[in-house]
C-alpha cells in the first residue's frame, strides 16, 4: 500500500510555548476529520511535507509540528528548556490550542518514545497509538548505537563516526561528542554534527538511500539532530529507569499498533518485542526486509494500512 498523494497544508502558525521556544505547527486534510498528531524522530529531525501522506486526507485532520529546537521551530538547535517533559507539555498545549478532545498519536523512532511518554501521562487524551521503530530511550538502547553494538554491523561507517574523537576519548563517545557539540569551537561543532548525522543517515535504511543521507547531512538538520540527540541521550532521555515499560499499564485501554523493521540496526527489534510484552493487546507487525526508516517501502505500506485501520475504528 502506497503513501497518499502529496497535499498542501491548510494553514500553519508559529506558536510560542514558553519564553524561549516557538513551535511551527501545521494542519492539513479534513478540518472536521479524525484528529491525528504526527511525532517526528530524532529528537531534532523535524517534519517534512511527505509525512502528511500516511493519512487519508479526506477523513483525517492531520497535525504536524516541529519539536523544540528543530525544523522551522525557533530558536534552532536550542537545548535550554528542551526535555522529554517539555515536549509532553507542548503536546497538551497544542491539543488545547486546537480544541481537540482526543487524538490519534502517530510516531516513529524518537517519536515513539515521545508518543509513549505522552500516552502514559495523558491516556485520557489518546484515542489510539500507532508506534513505529520503537526506541525505549534507556542507556542500553543508546549504547547499542553510539558505543558498542551497531559498530560491529557497520565497521566501515563506524570508522568515519569515531574519526573526530581522539582515541583516548573513545571509551565514552557520547560524552566526547556532547562536549564538542555544545562547545564554543564552531569548526569542531560542525565537524561533529556532520559525522554524527552521517552515521545515522548511512544506517537508517536496510539499503542506503541517497535521500536519507541528503536529509541528515543538510547542515541545518545535522546541527539540530546531533546537538539535541546528544543532549537527550546524555540525560537518558530524561526518563527514569525503564520508565516506558514500567508504566505501560497506562496503555491498557488505548487501541495500539506497533510496527518495526526486522533488520532495524538503529533500534533493534528487541525493543519493540519488549514493548509488546508489556502492552500485549496492541497489534504487533514485524516488517520483513526493512530497516529503521519510515522511508522503507514495506514500513510505509504497514503504516498506511495501520492509519486506515484506525480510521475505521475511530470514525
What key phrases describe this protein's structure?
315 residues, 11 helices, 8-stranded mixed sheet, alpha/beta, 2 domains, Rossmann fold
What does the model show?
With 315 residues, this protein is an alpha/beta fold. It has two domains: 11-139 and 239-314, Rossmann fold; 142-237, no CATH class. 40% of the residues lie in helices and 16% in strands. It has helices at residues 84-97, 110-121, 139-146, 155-162, 173-181, 186-203, 210-217, 219-234, 243-246, 269-278, 297-314, and strands at 11-16, 22-29, 34-39, 60-65, 103-108, 126-132, 256-261, 283-287. The chain has an eight-stranded mixed β-sheet with strand order 1-2-4-3-5-6-7-8, with helices on both faces. α5 crosses α8 (219-234), α6 packs antiparallel against α7 and α6 (186-203) packs across α8 (219-234). The longest helix has 18 residues, at 186-203. The radius of gyration is 18 Å and the shape is globular. The two termini are 21 Å apart. The model has no long low-confidence stretch (mean pLDDT 97).
Amino acid at each position: 500500500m502506497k503513501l497518499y498523494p502529496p497535499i498542501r497544508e491548510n494553514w500553519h502558525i508559529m506558536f510560542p510555548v514558553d519564553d524561549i521556544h516557538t513551535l511551527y505547527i501545521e494542519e492539513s486534510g479534513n478540518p472536521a476529520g479524525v484528529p491525528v498528531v504526527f511525532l517526528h524522530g530524532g529528537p531534532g529531525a523535524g517534519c517534512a511535507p511527505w509525512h502528511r501522506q500516511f493519512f487519508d486526507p479526506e477523513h483525517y485532520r492531520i497535525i504536524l509540528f516541529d519539536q523544540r529546537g528543530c525544523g522551522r521551530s525557533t530558536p534552532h538547535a536550542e537545548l535550554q528548556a528542551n526535555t522529554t517533559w517539555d515536549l509532553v507539555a507542548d503536546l497538551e498545549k497544542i491539543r488545547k490550542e486546537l480544541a481537540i478532545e482526543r487524538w490519534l498519536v502517530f510516531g516513529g523512532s524518537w517519536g515513539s518514545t515521545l508518543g509513549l511518554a505522552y500516552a502514559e501521562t495523558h491516556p485520557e487524551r489518546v484515542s489510539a497509538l500507532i508506534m513505529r521503530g520503537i526506541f525505549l530511550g534507556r542507556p542500553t538502547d543508546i549504547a547499542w548505537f553510539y558505543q558498542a553494538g551497531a559498530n560491529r554491523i557497520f565497521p566501515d561507517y563506524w570508522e568515519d563516526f569515531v574519526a573526530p574523537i581522539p582515541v583516548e576519548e573513545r571509551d565514552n563517545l557520547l560524552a566526547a561528542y556532547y562536549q564538542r557539540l555544545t562547545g564554543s569551537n564552531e569548526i569542531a561543532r560542525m565537524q561533529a554534527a556532520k559525522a554524527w548525522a552521517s552515521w545515522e543517515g548511512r544506517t537508517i535504511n536496510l539499503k542506503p538511500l541517497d535521500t536519507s543521507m541528503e536529509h541528515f547531512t543538510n547542515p541545518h538538520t545535522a546541527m539540530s539532530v546531533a546537538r539535541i540527540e546528544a543532549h537527550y541521550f546524555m540525560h537518558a532521555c530524561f526518563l527514569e529507569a525503564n520508565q516506558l515499560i514500567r508504566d505501560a499499564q497506562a496503555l491498557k485501554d488505548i487501541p495500539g499498533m506497533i510496527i518495526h523493521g526486522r533488520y532495524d540496526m538503529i533500534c533493534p527489534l528487541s525493543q519493540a518485542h519488549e514493548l509488546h510484552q508489556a502492552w500485549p493487546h496492541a497489534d504487533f507487525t514485524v516488517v520483513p526486509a526493512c530497516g529503521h526508516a519510515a522511508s522503507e517501502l514495506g514500513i510505509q505500506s504497514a503504516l498506511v494500512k495501520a492509519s486506515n485501520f484506525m480510521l475505521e475504528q475511530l470514525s
